[in-house]
Amino acid sequence: MKNIAILGSTGSIGRQTVDVALASGAFYCFRARGETPATRCWRKQIEALSPELAVLADEAAAARLKARARRQDAHRRWSRRLRSRRQHIRRRTSSSRA
Fold first, then answer.
1. Quick check: 53 and 32 in contact, CB under 8 A?
2. Using CA atoms, how far apart are residues 8 and 14, in angstroms rounded to an integer?
3. Please, are residues 52 and 31 in contact by the beta-carbon 8 Å criterion?
4. Distance from C-alpha of 76 to C-alpha of 39, rounded to nearest angstrom
5. pLDDT digit string, tens, across residues 9-23
6. Which phi-psi region, left, alpha or beta, contains residue 8 (left: φ > 0; alpha: ψ -120 to 50)?
7. Are 1 and 28 in contact (CB under 8 A)?
8. Rounded mean pLDDT of the chain?
9. CA distance 21 to 62
10. Of 50, 73, 96, 98, which is the most exposed, with the fewest CB atoms less than 10 Å away?
11. DSSP letters for 12-73
């Protein structure tokens, strides 16, 4: 496993670095990412790469991004529970028919 820290990954060179790392077939662990503005591209990269650390220079933008991540995480947990419950109900109804 190779560790990567990228500063400015939404620029042309940063996006190419991410693309090359993902396309290489090697296992990379994106440890840190840094950016001045919180752009949509940056948020998508955060969601796709799940780095250990994401840094923004703008504290207000960092707070908004953190709140958004919490909401998305809560939604994912809720969706998993709902899927699990549906599967449980299906198993119970299919076994009772037999």
1. yes
2. 6
3. yes
4. 23
5. 778 888 888 888 888
6. left
7. yes
8. 77
9. 26
10. 98
11. HHHHHHHHHHHHT-S-EEEEEEEESS--HHHHHHHHHH--SEEEES-HHHHHHHHHHHHHHH
Residues comprising the chain, all counted: 98
Q: Which pair of structure tokens corresponds to residue 85?
A: 């419950």
* Residue tagged 């919180």 (tokens): 38
All residues at 6 or more sequence positions from 97 whose CB lies less than 8 Å from its CB, including other chains:
none
- Pairing between strand 53-56 and 2-7? unpaired
Residues 6+ apart with CB under 8 A from 26: 2
Both tokens of 70, joined, read: 């919490």
Residue range 52-79, pLDDT digits in tens: 777 777 788 778 878 887 887 777 777 7
Name the amino acid, one letter, at 46: I
